[in-house]
Amino acid sequence: MALHRSCFLLVIFAGCVKGWINSAALLREMAPASHRCNSMQMGVVPMTKFDGTTLGEMEVSLKVAKSGAYIVHRKVVAEQANMRLGTATTKTRSEVRGGGRKPYQQKGTGRARRGSSRSPLLKGGGVTFGPKQKSYRIKMNKKEKQLAISTALMSAVPKMKLVEDLDEHFMQPRTQDMKAFLERMSVDTTNRESTMLITNQRHENTYLSARNIPYLNLRTLDNINARDLVKAKKIIVADSAMATINARYGSKDAA
Question: Residue 141 and residue 138: Cα distance in Å, rounded?
Answer without folding.
Answer: 10
